TrEMBL record:
Composed of three domains: the N-terminal N domain, which is responsible for interactions with the ribosome, the central G domain, which binds GTP, and the C-terminal M domain, which binds the RNA and the signal sequence of the RNC. Residues 100-296 form the SRP54-type proteins GTP-binding domain. Its main location: cytoplasm. NCBIfam families: ffh. Keywords: Cytoplasm, GTP-binding, Hydrolase, Nucleotide-binding, Ribonucleoprotein, RNA-binding, Signal recognition particle. Residues 1-86 form the Signal recognition particle SRP54 helical bundle domain. It comes from Apilactobacillus timberlakei. It comes from the Bacteria. It is an enzyme of class 3 (hydrolase). This is Signal recognition particle protein. GTP binds at residues 107-114, 190-194, 248-251. Part of the signal recognition particle protein translocation system, which is composed of SRP and FtsY. Residues 99-301 form the AAA+ ATPase domain.
Length: 443
């Protein structure tokens, strides 16, 4: 996501790099480019205006123009203001004092309501030991009920449904009764959507709201729809006074407009983001992490969390030492590849490393899982000595390895070259002289 925006923001700020002093006109030029980058990313016009004004004022007020590292200070201001625009801090899900907590999903057709209802139920089950009940209140498409049943089965959460012939309000009423009898602590109501906001849909949603007094009305919007998502959010919020937003499909190639505008326009928090079709692809929305991601500084916090889950600390310590001493060999590389493969799609992982999102070196690294297998095959064809001592790999050894693994010699050469580049970069990073911000600015 955000590729275009990230690139343009970085470019806008790269102009300032290496300048001991930033002139008024440099700053104005940078601000103009930031403004265009945001508009092109489909950020709401008034959000852009306010953002640019604030950054500009802060940049002047902070004596950035006289500062030692003006470029870095401006990046920091932009990062902080992006965070503020998206709401500053993560906003937790509301919870009622008496069970059940009622969560009503709302949104246009295809936004991801049904999927998100499932994902959220699973999250509540896993993280709060909850016993949720899903209510199928979208009766307009028979497939919608089947879909929710499917979801319920997959995550082992009961679904209350009455087919398509009973009025949604009546279904919800009966579902609430069932939840009461079974002492479910959460009820998630999956409602119908339309292609566009219309009065009939809004009336139905208002009636469900009146009946259940939800603790949470989560508006689900598709991040891919940019400015439309923002207009939709405004419309739903006017009618229903929503309590929060779920931004879905952030795994896709979104331009960033929705993420950056919705909070400002509706004054309602984005609570979760959907990042895939699978049931575990729902994450708490952290404005600061999203800002770093938009700036291409990498979502290092997410990476650390993810790594901590899958990775032993001692191993990490050993690895850091090897990186520092520059004794990182192919055997370690192989370990890393295996670890990374366990963690998920390689592109996603690499993009979370600071400075990697738009690192040109990354563009040369092949991310196809098949290529990973080839890399492994090449390493398996090395002797132990060669793995520990990559410098030994002269042309004749490389030819032998190529024959051994059945890969072309060019591929072997390329892989070794990439390995050496990576090793150099890791060595630098491990010595702490390459923070995400510096790396991004290329200093
Ligand atoms: P609803 O009409 O609002 O209930 O939307 P659905 O839950 O049926 O979702 C519509 C489509 O979007 C389905 O194919 C989902 O798998 C897909 N979808 C939902 N959330 C995400 C997401 O976060 N990422 C991706 N890639 N697809 C999603
Ligand atoms: Mg649905």
């Amino acid at each position: 996501a955000f590729e275009g925006l990230t690139e343009r923001l970085q470019k806008a700020m790269r102009n300032l790099r290496g300048k001991g002093k930033v002139s008024e006109s440099d700053l104005r030029k940078t601000m103009r480019e930031i403004r265009l980058a945001l508009l092109e990313a489909d950020v709401n016009f008034s959000v852009v205006r306010k953002f640019v004004k604030t950054v500009q004022e802060r940049a002047k007020g902070a004596d950035v123009l006289e500062g030692l590292n003006p470029a870095q200070q401006i990046v920091k201001i932009v990062d902080e203001e992006l965070t503020k625009t998206m709401g500053e801090e993560a906003t937790p899900l509301n919870k009622s004092e008496k069970i059940p907590t009622v969560i009503m999903m709302a949104g246009l057709q295809g936004a991801g309501k049904t999927t998100t209802a499932g994902k959220l139920s699973l999250k509540l089950k896993n993280e709060k030991d909850a016993r949720p009940l899903l209510i199928a209140a979208d009766i307009y498409r028979p497939a919608a009920i089947d879909q929710l049943e499917q979801v319920g089965k997959e995550i082992d959460v009961p679904v209350f449904q009455k087919g398509t012939d009973v009025d949604p309000i009546e279904i919800v009423k009966q579902g609430m009764q069932v939840a009461k009898e079974n002492h479910n602590d959460y009820v998630l109501i999956d409602t119908a959507g339309r292609l566009q906001i219309d009065e009939k849909l809004m009336d139905e949603l208002k009636n469900i709201k009146e009946l259940t007094h939800p603790d949470e009305i989560l508006l689900v919007v598709d991040a891919m729809t940019g400015q439309n998502a923002v207009n939709t959010a405004e419309g739903f919020n006017d009618a229903l006074d929503i309590t929060g937003v779920v931004l879905t499909k952030l795994d896709g190639d979104t331009r960033g407009g929705a993420a950056l505008s919705i909070r400002e326009v509706t004054q309602k928090p984005i609570k979760f983001i959907g990042q895939g079709e699978k049931m575990d692809a729902l994450d708490v929305f952290h404005p600061d992490r999203m800002a770093s991601r938009i700036l291409g500084m990498g979502d290092i916090l997410s990476l650390i969390e993810k790594t901590q889950k899958d990775y032993d600390e001692k191993e990490a310590q050993k690895l850091t030492e090897k990186m520092q001493n520059n004794t990182f060999g192919f055997e370690d590389f192989l370990d890393q590849l295996n670890q990374i493969q366990k963690m998920g799609p390689l592109e996603d992982i690499m993009k979370m490393i600071p400075g990697m999102a738009n690192n040109p070196a990354l563009k040369n690294i092949n991310m196809d899982p098949k290529d990973l297998e080839h890399i492994k095959a090449i390493i398996y064809s090395m002797t132990k000595e060669e793995k520990d001592n990559p410098d030994l790999l002269n042309p004749s050894r490389r030819r032998r390895i190529a024959r051994g693994c059945g890969r072309p010699i060019q591929e072997v050469n390329r892989m070794i070259k990439q390995f050496n580049q990576m090793k150099t970069m890791m060595n630098k990073m491990s010595k702490g002289n390459m923070s995400g911000m510096e790396n991004m600015l290329g200093n």
